[in-house]
Write a structure and sequence with these properties.
The protein folds into 2 domains: about 260 residues, 3-Layer(aba) Sandwich (Aspartate Aminotransferase, domain 2), CATH 3.40.640.10; about 140 residues, Aspartate Aminotransferase, domain 1, CATH 3.90.1150.10. The chain contains 12 helices and 16 strands. Strands 1, 2, 3, 4, 5, 6, 7, 10 and 11 form a 9-stranded mixed sheet that branches. A 3-stranded antiparallel sheet has the order 9-8-14, with no helix packed on it. Strand 4 and strand 5 form a beta hairpin. The longest helix is centred in the C-terminal third of the chain and has 34 residues. The two termini are about 35 Å apart.
Length: about 400
Protein backbone atom coordinates (compact mmCIF):
# COMPACT_ATOMS: atom_id res chain seq x y z
CA UNK A 1 0.00 0.00 0.00
CA UNK A 2 1.39 3.42 -0.90
CA UNK A 3 2.29 5.87 1.81
CA UNK A 4 -0.33 8.35 0.65
CA UNK A 5 -3.02 5.77 1.44
CA UNK A 6 -1.85 5.23 4.99
CA UNK A 7 -3.93 6.56 7.86
CA UNK A 8 -1.59 7.89 10.54
CA UNK A 9 -2.41 7.45 14.20
CA UNK A 10 -1.75 11.17 14.73
CA UNK A 11 -1.54 14.13 12.37
CA UNK A 12 0.51 16.99 13.78
CA UNK A 13 1.42 18.43 10.40
CA UNK A 14 -1.94 19.70 9.08
CA UNK A 15 -2.79 22.12 11.93
CA UNK A 16 0.73 23.55 11.92
CA UNK A 17 0.68 24.12 8.18
CA UNK A 18 -2.68 25.87 8.54
CA UNK A 19 -1.30 28.13 11.27
CA UNK A 20 2.19 28.49 9.81
CA UNK A 21 2.01 32.23 9.22
CA UNK A 22 0.77 33.00 12.73
CA UNK A 23 3.29 30.65 14.34
CA UNK A 24 6.25 32.01 12.43
CA UNK A 25 5.08 35.50 13.37
CA UNK A 26 5.46 34.52 17.04
CA UNK A 27 8.97 33.26 16.41
CA UNK A 28 9.96 36.42 14.54
CA UNK A 29 8.56 38.57 17.33
CA UNK A 30 10.66 36.73 19.90
CA UNK A 31 13.79 37.03 17.75
CA UNK A 32 13.27 40.76 17.24
CA UNK A 33 12.71 41.48 20.94
CA UNK A 34 14.89 38.75 22.52
CA UNK A 35 11.88 37.92 24.70
CA UNK A 36 12.62 34.26 25.40
CA UNK A 37 11.85 33.75 29.10
CA UNK A 38 8.79 35.18 30.84
CA UNK A 39 7.35 38.50 29.78
CA UNK A 40 4.15 39.50 27.97
CA UNK A 41 3.72 36.38 25.83
CA UNK A 42 3.72 34.11 28.87
CA UNK A 43 1.39 36.38 30.82
CA UNK A 44 -1.02 36.72 27.91
CA UNK A 45 -1.25 32.96 27.48
CA UNK A 46 -1.67 32.38 31.22
CA UNK A 47 -4.55 34.86 31.36
CA UNK A 48 -6.23 33.37 28.29
CA UNK A 49 -5.88 29.76 29.46
CA UNK A 50 -7.16 30.57 32.96
CA UNK A 51 -10.25 32.08 31.35
CA UNK A 52 -10.65 29.04 29.07
CA UNK A 53 -10.59 26.74 32.11
CA UNK A 54 -12.91 28.97 34.20
CA UNK A 55 -10.10 29.29 36.74
CA UNK A 56 -8.82 32.43 38.43
CA UNK A 57 -5.12 31.75 37.89
CA UNK A 58 -2.84 29.96 35.45
CA UNK A 59 0.90 29.51 35.94
CA UNK A 60 2.94 28.27 32.99
CA UNK A 61 5.51 25.54 33.53
CA UNK A 62 8.16 23.69 31.56
CA UNK A 63 6.14 20.48 31.22
CA UNK A 64 3.06 18.70 32.49
CA UNK A 65 5.23 16.77 34.94
CA UNK A 66 6.61 20.04 36.34
CA UNK A 67 3.07 21.38 36.57
CA UNK A 68 1.78 18.42 38.57
CA UNK A 69 4.79 18.38 40.89
CA UNK A 70 4.46 22.10 41.60
CA UNK A 71 0.69 21.81 42.10
CA UNK A 72 1.16 19.02 44.64
CA UNK A 73 3.88 20.86 46.55
CA UNK A 74 2.08 24.21 46.56
CA UNK A 75 -1.22 22.49 47.36
CA UNK A 76 0.14 21.12 50.62
CA UNK A 77 1.57 17.66 49.89
CA UNK A 78 4.69 17.13 51.99
CA UNK A 79 7.60 14.67 51.97
CA UNK A 80 6.51 11.45 53.65
CA UNK A 81 2.85 11.75 52.65
CA UNK A 82 0.81 9.17 50.75
CA UNK A 83 -1.10 10.26 47.63
CA UNK A 84 -3.90 8.18 46.09
CA UNK A 85 -3.99 7.73 42.33
CA UNK A 86 -4.46 5.06 39.64
CA UNK A 87 -2.10 2.54 38.03
CA UNK A 88 -3.62 3.10 34.56
CA UNK A 89 -1.95 6.34 33.54
CA UNK A 90 1.37 7.60 32.20
CA UNK A 91 4.21 7.41 34.72
CA UNK A 92 4.45 11.23 34.87
CA UNK A 93 1.49 11.16 37.29
CA UNK A 94 3.40 9.12 39.84
CA UNK A 95 6.76 10.69 39.06
CA UNK A 96 5.31 14.03 40.14
CA UNK A 97 4.06 12.47 43.38
CA UNK A 98 7.42 10.85 44.14
CA UNK A 99 9.38 13.96 43.19
CA UNK A 100 7.23 15.96 45.62
CA UNK A 101 8.56 13.61 48.30
CA UNK A 102 5.36 11.60 48.66
CA UNK A 103 4.51 7.96 47.95
CA UNK A 104 1.86 6.90 45.43
CA UNK A 105 -0.84 4.49 46.59
CA UNK A 106 -2.89 2.91 43.85
CA UNK A 107 -6.61 2.12 43.63
CA UNK A 108 -8.36 0.46 40.71
CA UNK A 109 -10.23 2.16 37.89
CA UNK A 110 -13.83 2.11 36.72
CA UNK A 111 -14.20 -0.48 33.96
CA UNK A 112 -16.38 1.75 31.79
CA UNK A 113 -14.70 5.16 32.01
CA UNK A 114 -11.13 3.97 32.86
CA UNK A 115 -10.96 6.80 35.39
CA UNK A 116 -10.40 6.42 39.12
CA UNK A 117 -13.24 4.52 40.83
CA UNK A 118 -14.47 6.54 43.84
CA UNK A 119 -15.81 3.39 45.48
CA UNK A 120 -12.30 1.92 45.39
CA UNK A 121 -10.91 5.10 46.95
CA UNK A 122 -13.41 4.81 49.78
CA UNK A 123 -12.71 1.09 50.16
CA UNK A 124 -8.98 1.78 50.50
CA UNK A 125 -9.53 4.50 53.09
CA UNK A 126 -11.93 2.36 55.12
CA UNK A 127 -10.10 -0.98 54.97
CA UNK A 128 -6.41 -0.13 54.63
CA UNK A 129 -6.17 3.07 56.66
CA UNK A 130 -6.80 4.22 60.22
CA UNK A 131 -8.03 7.61 61.37
CA UNK A 132 -5.64 9.35 63.75
CA UNK A 133 -8.16 11.50 65.63
CA UNK A 134 -5.43 13.45 67.43
CA UNK A 135 -4.02 14.81 64.18
CA UNK A 136 -7.26 14.55 62.17
CA UNK A 137 -5.43 12.59 59.49
CA UNK A 138 -5.88 9.20 57.85
CA UNK A 139 -2.83 6.93 58.16
CA UNK A 140 -1.94 4.20 55.67
CA UNK A 141 -1.71 0.97 57.68
CA UNK A 142 0.98 -0.55 55.46
CA UNK A 143 3.50 2.30 55.69
CA UNK A 144 2.35 4.26 58.73
CA UNK A 145 2.40 7.41 56.57
CA UNK A 146 -0.36 10.05 56.46
CA UNK A 147 -2.68 9.98 53.45
CA UNK A 148 -3.09 13.60 52.41
CA UNK A 149 -4.15 13.82 48.75
CA UNK A 150 -5.99 12.32 45.77
CA UNK A 151 -4.86 12.78 42.17
CA UNK A 152 -7.66 11.78 39.78
CA UNK A 153 -6.48 11.49 36.18
CA UNK A 154 -8.97 12.78 33.60
CA UNK A 155 -7.97 10.05 31.18
CA UNK A 156 -8.30 10.17 27.38
CA UNK A 157 -10.12 13.52 27.56
CA UNK A 158 -12.88 12.57 30.02
CA UNK A 159 -13.18 13.92 33.54
CA UNK A 160 -13.40 11.70 36.59
CA UNK A 161 -16.48 11.59 38.87
CA UNK A 162 -15.60 14.76 40.71
CA UNK A 163 -18.68 15.09 42.95
CA UNK A 164 -17.97 11.72 44.54
CA UNK A 165 -14.26 12.40 44.86
CA UNK A 166 -14.79 15.83 46.41
CA UNK A 167 -17.16 14.30 48.94
CA UNK A 168 -14.49 11.77 49.93
CA UNK A 169 -11.80 14.46 50.01
CA UNK A 170 -13.91 16.61 52.31
CA UNK A 171 -14.77 13.70 54.61
CA UNK A 172 -11.16 12.61 55.01
CA UNK A 173 -9.52 16.05 54.81
CA UNK A 174 -7.66 15.23 51.60
CA UNK A 175 -6.14 17.59 49.02
CA UNK A 176 -7.56 17.02 45.54
CA UNK A 177 -5.25 17.86 42.63
CA UNK A 178 -6.54 17.22 39.10
CA UNK A 179 -4.26 15.58 36.57
CA UNK A 180 -5.89 17.26 33.57
CA UNK A 181 -2.97 16.64 31.21
CA UNK A 182 -5.30 14.95 28.68
CA UNK A 183 -8.44 17.00 29.30
CA UNK A 184 -8.09 20.51 27.85
CA UNK A 185 -11.66 21.81 27.68
CA UNK A 186 -13.36 18.69 29.04
CA UNK A 187 -16.43 19.33 31.19
CA UNK A 188 -18.30 17.61 34.02
CA UNK A 189 -21.82 18.31 35.23
CA UNK A 190 -21.78 18.70 38.99
CA UNK A 191 -25.12 17.61 40.41
CA UNK A 192 -24.08 19.12 43.72
CA UNK A 193 -23.66 22.55 42.13
CA UNK A 194 -26.19 21.99 39.32
CA UNK A 195 -23.75 23.38 36.78
CA UNK A 196 -21.13 22.36 34.23
CA UNK A 197 -17.54 22.61 35.44
CA UNK A 198 -14.42 22.68 33.29
CA UNK A 199 -11.31 20.57 33.84
CA UNK A 200 -8.84 22.58 35.85
CA UNK A 201 -11.41 24.55 37.84
CA UNK A 202 -12.57 22.07 40.50
CA UNK A 203 -9.65 20.75 42.55
CA UNK A 204 -7.38 22.76 44.80
CA UNK A 205 -5.19 22.95 41.70
CA UNK A 206 -4.80 21.16 38.37
CA UNK A 207 -1.96 20.29 36.02
CA UNK A 208 -2.01 20.42 32.22
CA UNK A 209 0.51 19.13 29.71
CA UNK A 210 1.02 20.81 26.34
CA UNK A 211 3.12 18.00 24.88
CA UNK A 212 2.78 18.26 21.07
CA UNK A 213 0.22 15.46 20.73
CA UNK A 214 -2.25 16.91 23.26
CA UNK A 215 -5.50 18.62 22.24
CA UNK A 216 -3.62 21.86 22.91
CA UNK A 217 -0.01 21.08 22.11
CA UNK A 218 3.12 23.20 22.07
CA UNK A 219 5.91 22.81 19.53
CA UNK A 220 8.03 21.26 22.27
CA UNK A 221 7.61 20.77 26.03
CA UNK A 222 5.23 22.93 28.07
CA UNK A 223 2.71 22.72 30.88
CA UNK A 224 0.58 24.80 33.24
CA UNK A 225 -1.06 24.85 36.64
CA UNK A 226 -4.57 26.26 37.08
CA UNK A 227 -6.10 27.12 40.44
CA UNK A 228 -8.62 29.36 42.15
CA UNK A 229 -6.29 29.75 45.14
CA UNK A 230 -4.10 32.86 45.05
CA UNK A 231 -1.58 31.40 47.50
CA UNK A 232 -1.10 28.27 45.39
CA UNK A 233 -0.59 30.44 42.31
CA UNK A 234 2.02 32.49 44.17
CA UNK A 235 3.88 29.39 45.38
CA UNK A 236 3.89 27.69 41.99
CA UNK A 237 5.32 30.84 40.39
CA UNK A 238 8.20 30.65 42.86
CA UNK A 239 8.68 26.89 42.52
CA UNK A 240 9.02 27.13 38.74
CA UNK A 241 11.66 29.88 39.04
CA UNK A 242 14.25 28.70 41.58
CA UNK A 243 12.07 29.73 44.53
CA UNK A 244 12.42 33.42 43.72
CA UNK A 245 9.89 35.94 45.01
CA UNK A 246 11.85 38.48 42.99
CA UNK A 247 15.18 38.28 41.22
CA UNK A 248 17.89 36.91 43.55
CA UNK A 249 15.50 36.75 46.53
CA UNK A 250 14.87 33.02 47.14
CA UNK A 251 12.12 32.28 49.65
CA UNK A 252 12.52 28.54 49.10
CA UNK A 253 14.46 26.06 47.04
CA UNK A 254 12.74 25.73 43.69
CA UNK A 255 13.24 24.36 40.20
CA UNK A 256 14.01 25.51 36.71
CA UNK A 257 10.54 24.79 35.40
CA UNK A 258 9.52 27.91 33.49
CA UNK A 259 7.39 28.10 30.36
CA UNK A 260 9.36 29.44 27.40
CA UNK A 261 7.96 32.61 25.85
CA UNK A 262 8.00 31.19 22.32
CA UNK A 263 6.01 28.12 23.42
CA UNK A 264 3.56 30.39 25.26
CA UNK A 265 3.13 32.41 22.08
CA UNK A 266 2.51 29.27 20.03
CA UNK A 267 -0.01 28.06 22.60
CA UNK A 268 -1.85 31.39 22.61
CA UNK A 269 -2.29 31.12 18.83
CA UNK A 270 -3.55 27.54 19.07
CA UNK A 271 -5.81 28.25 22.04
CA UNK A 272 -8.00 30.41 19.81
CA UNK A 273 -8.73 27.28 17.75
CA UNK A 274 -9.03 24.76 20.59
CA UNK A 275 -12.81 24.85 21.05
CA UNK A 276 -13.30 24.22 17.33
CA UNK A 277 -10.72 21.44 17.32
CA UNK A 278 -12.39 19.81 20.33
CA UNK A 279 -15.74 19.95 18.54
CA UNK A 280 -14.12 18.28 15.52
CA UNK A 281 -12.77 15.54 17.77
CA UNK A 282 -16.21 15.03 19.30
CA UNK A 283 -17.74 14.83 15.82
CA UNK A 284 -15.13 12.26 14.79
CA UNK A 285 -15.89 10.20 17.91
CA UNK A 286 -19.60 10.28 17.04
CA UNK A 287 -18.80 9.10 13.52
CA UNK A 288 -16.82 6.18 14.93
CA UNK A 289 -19.83 5.17 17.02
CA UNK A 290 -22.10 5.39 14.00
CA UNK A 291 -19.75 3.36 11.80
CA UNK A 292 -19.22 0.65 14.41
CA UNK A 293 -22.99 0.44 14.88
CA UNK A 294 -23.50 -0.02 11.14
CA UNK A 295 -20.91 -2.80 11.04
CA UNK A 296 -22.12 -4.73 14.09
CA UNK A 297 -19.08 -3.86 16.17
CA UNK A 298 -20.20 -5.76 19.26
CA UNK A 299 -16.77 -7.43 19.51
CA UNK A 300 -15.18 -4.02 19.86
CA UNK A 301 -15.88 -2.27 23.15
CA UNK A 302 -16.29 1.45 22.48
CA UNK A 303 -15.48 4.32 24.87
CA UNK A 304 -18.17 5.01 27.45
CA UNK A 305 -19.25 8.62 27.93
CA UNK A 306 -21.66 8.89 30.87
CA UNK A 307 -24.40 11.46 31.20
CA UNK A 308 -22.90 14.58 32.70
CA UNK A 309 -19.65 14.27 30.77
CA UNK A 310 -18.42 16.25 27.81
CA UNK A 311 -15.36 14.31 26.71
CA UNK A 312 -12.89 16.05 24.38
CA UNK A 313 -11.46 12.76 23.06
CA UNK A 314 -7.76 13.26 23.42
CA UNK A 315 -7.77 9.59 22.47
CA UNK A 316 -10.42 7.23 21.10
CA UNK A 317 -9.67 4.01 22.95
CA UNK A 318 -11.50 0.77 22.18
CA UNK A 319 -11.00 -2.65 23.72
CA UNK A 320 -10.45 -5.79 21.70
CA UNK A 321 -9.28 -9.27 22.58
CA UNK A 322 -5.98 -10.28 21.03
CA UNK A 323 -5.03 -6.62 20.82
CA UNK A 324 -1.49 -7.22 19.56
CA UNK A 325 -2.72 -9.23 16.59
CA UNK A 326 -5.27 -6.51 15.87
CA UNK A 327 -2.45 -3.97 15.72
CA UNK A 328 -0.53 -6.13 13.25
CA UNK A 329 -3.63 -6.54 11.06
CA UNK A 330 -4.33 -2.80 11.04
CA UNK A 331 -0.69 -1.97 10.36
CA UNK A 332 -0.67 -4.30 7.35
CA UNK A 333 -3.69 -2.37 6.06
CA UNK A 334 -1.91 0.98 6.50
CA UNK A 335 -3.75 2.02 9.66
CA UNK A 336 -1.72 3.48 12.51
CA UNK A 337 -2.68 2.75 16.13
CA UNK A 338 -1.37 3.32 19.63
CA UNK A 339 -1.38 1.61 23.03
CA UNK A 340 -2.08 3.61 26.21
CA UNK A 341 -0.83 2.02 28.51
CA UNK A 342 0.34 -1.61 28.13
CA UNK A 343 1.87 -2.14 31.60
CA UNK A 344 0.05 -0.75 34.65
CA UNK A 345 2.27 1.29 36.92
CA UNK A 346 1.99 -1.09 39.87
CA UNK A 347 3.72 -3.75 37.72
CA UNK A 348 6.49 -1.46 36.46
CA UNK A 349 10.05 -2.07 37.70
CA UNK A 350 10.21 1.56 38.79
CA UNK A 351 7.67 0.78 41.55
CA UNK A 352 8.86 -2.66 42.62
CA UNK A 353 9.62 -1.13 46.04
CA UNK A 354 5.88 -0.66 46.62
CA UNK A 355 5.50 -4.46 46.54
CA UNK A 356 2.39 -4.66 44.42
CA UNK A 357 1.78 -7.85 42.47
CA UNK A 358 -0.19 -9.03 39.48
CA UNK A 359 -3.86 -9.31 40.34
CA UNK A 360 -3.90 -6.41 42.81
CA UNK A 361 -5.81 -4.18 40.37
CA UNK A 362 -7.61 -6.55 38.00
CA UNK A 363 -9.59 -3.97 36.05
CA UNK A 364 -6.54 -1.85 35.27
CA UNK A 365 -4.66 -4.99 34.24
CA UNK A 366 -7.49 -6.17 31.96
CA UNK A 367 -7.87 -2.76 30.33
CA UNK A 368 -4.11 -2.51 29.83
CA UNK A 369 -4.12 -5.80 27.90
CA UNK A 370 -7.06 -4.88 25.63
CA UNK A 371 -6.93 -1.11 25.11
CA UNK A 372 -6.29 0.02 21.54
CA UNK A 373 -6.11 3.68 20.55
CA UNK A 374 -7.51 4.36 17.08
CA UNK A 375 -6.64 7.35 14.90
CA UNK A 376 -8.45 10.46 16.09
CA UNK A 377 -7.58 14.10 15.43
CA UNK A 378 -9.51 17.17 14.28
CA UNK A 379 -8.85 16.72 10.56
CA UNK A 380 -9.60 12.99 10.40
CA UNK A 381 -11.99 12.33 7.51
CA UNK A 382 -15.06 10.11 7.47
CA UNK A 383 -13.67 7.94 4.66
CA UNK A 384 -10.53 7.33 6.72
CA UNK A 385 -12.60 6.37 9.74
CA UNK A 386 -14.69 4.05 7.59
CA UNK A 387 -11.52 2.24 6.55
CA UNK A 388 -10.33 1.97 10.15
CA UNK A 389 -13.63 0.49 11.27
CA UNK A 390 -13.87 -1.82 8.27
CA UNK A 391 -10.38 -3.22 8.86
CA UNK A 392 -11.01 -3.74 12.56
CA UNK A 393 -14.33 -5.42 11.75
CA UNK A 394 -12.50 -7.68 9.29
CA UNK A 395 -10.02 -8.62 12.00
CA UNK A 396 -12.59 -9.54 14.66
CA UNK A 397 -14.59 -11.48 12.06
CA UNK A 398 -11.49 -13.47 11.08
CA UNK A 399 -10.68 -14.05 14.75
CA UNK A 400 -14.24 -15.23 15.38
CA UNK A 401 -14.10 -17.70 12.53
CA UNK A 402 -10.71 -18.99 13.66
CA UNK A 403 -11.99 -19.51 17.21
CA UNK A 404 -15.08 -21.35 15.97
CA UNK A 405 -12.95 -23.59 13.76
CA UNK A 406 -10.59 -24.46 16.61
CA UNK A 407 -13.52 -25.38 18.86
CA UNK A 408 -15.07 -27.66 16.25
CA UNK A 409 -11.79 -29.40 15.45
Amino acid sequence: MSGKDNIPFLDLVTPHVELEEELTGILKGALHTAGFIGGPMVEQFENAFAKFCDAKYCVGAGSGTDALRFALMAGGVRPGDVVITVPHTFIATTEAISQAGAEPRFVDIDERTYNIDPSKVRQYLESQCTLDSRLDVVVDNKSGKPVTAIVPVHLYGQMADMDSLLEIAEQYNLILIEDACQAHGAQYFSKKENSWRTAGSIGRAAAFSFYPGKNLGACGEAGAITTNDEEIARKTRMLRDHGQSKKYYHDMEGYNGRLDSIQAGFLAVKLRHLSRWNEMRQAAAARYRELFSEMNGEKVRLPYEPDGSRCVYHLFVVRVEDRDEAIKHLASAGVGTGIHYPIPLHLQKAYANLRYKKGDFPIAEMVASEALSLPLYPHLRRDQQSRVVSELHNFVSIEGRSLAASKSA
